[in-house]
Amino acid sequence: MIDTVITLVFMMAFLTFSIFPAIKIVNFIEKKTKLSEKMKNLLMLIFTILIALSLALFMKMT
Fold this sequence. Notes:
Layout: H1 2-14, H2 19-32, H3 37-61
């Protein structure tokens, strides 16, 4: 239980740092395919959370 809480705290710290890479990934996907505004926002949210979670898990492992 405490490991999950620590991971989520790390994730909250990394959310601000993961926005820029998420923007770049979504822009790259948009160049390949046509995306609606709703889909772009959803992809941005998903990639931001995934990048922050992966960074938090990496920090917890080290």
